[in-house]
Amino acid sequence: MKKMYEGKAKILFDDGVEGTLIQKFKDSATAFNAKKKDEFDGKGVLNRKISELMFGYLEGHGIKTHFVENLDERSDRVRSVEILKLEVVVRNRSAGSFCRRYAAPKNITFTPCLFELYLKEDELDDPQITEDSALALELINKDQLEHVRETTLKINELMKDLFLKIGFILVDYKLEFGKTSDGEIILADEISPDTMRLWDPETLDSYDKDLFREDTGDLLVGYREVLKRLQEQL
Asked: By the 8 A CB rule, do 205 and 226 touch?
């Protein structure tokens, strides 16, 4: 197989099947735009399964994604898409960079949620970008932006409901979207504890990558608990 792209947490390969790629999950953990790094044996296996469950749940509720099929414990077949050079962040509560940026206290509830865009550019530390700037730079057009917003808000309600049922607060998360060969914008990348914050409703303990970012617990224990509860629910 030909390696097409390697990111911080995944590798994409072309195995010759038209219109699809192989997405392999790595055990690497990074934080603060890869300024902090480590390896956790089995993390990629956990993230792949969690992401498969999340994509399946969203597909079942009308959200189109790039997921096609599972191949092995670390790899999925996904639709080949051109990833938009924008990351979408949804915030239901204040945490992380939001608190640092605005000197805000942790755990402010946002009603409605905050919809934010970030330029997907590692060398610039993925800076926040306004919608007008994204349009002016032709990173997205008006119709695509509206579609991404509407889809994201629907995803937020679906995921908040799911995680509430299994005992977690969905604090915030990142999404990436891609454009298919026929111009359709669909959900891509992954949905896992690497890309979201999940808190215990009573203690506000983390079950996500903040365990690694903040050195507050065992990352693999947290991820296993998320997978366990999702499997029991789905």
From this structure: no
Q: What is the CATH number of the domain that holds 44?
A: 3.30.200.20
**Number of domains observed in the structure of the chain:** 2
Q: Record the pTM.
A: 0.96
Note whether 147 and 59 are within 8 A (CB). no
Determine, yes or no, domain membership for 230. no
The secondary element (H helix, E strand) that includes residue 152 is helix 142-165
Q: Would you say residue 233 lies in a domain?
A: no
Same domain, 96 and 208: yes
Each of the 234 residues of the chain gets a pLDDT tens digit; together they read: 899 999 999 999 999 999 999 999 999 999 887 779 999 999 999 999 999 999 999 999 999 999 999 999 999 999 999 999 999 999 999 999 999 999 999 999 999 999 999 999 988 999 999 999 999 999 999 999 999 999 999 999 999 999 999 999 999 999 999 999 999 999 999 999 999 999 999 999 999 999 999 999 999 999 999 999 999 999
Q: What is the CATH number of the domain that holds 150?
A: 3.30.470.20
Q: Find where tokens 């049922």 sit.
A: 165
> Following DSSP, what letter does each residue of 36-67 receive, concatenated?
EEEE-TTHHHHHHHHHHHHHHHHHTTT--BSE
Within 13 Å of residue 20, how many CA atoms lie on the same side as its CB?
16
Domain that holds residue 55: 2-79
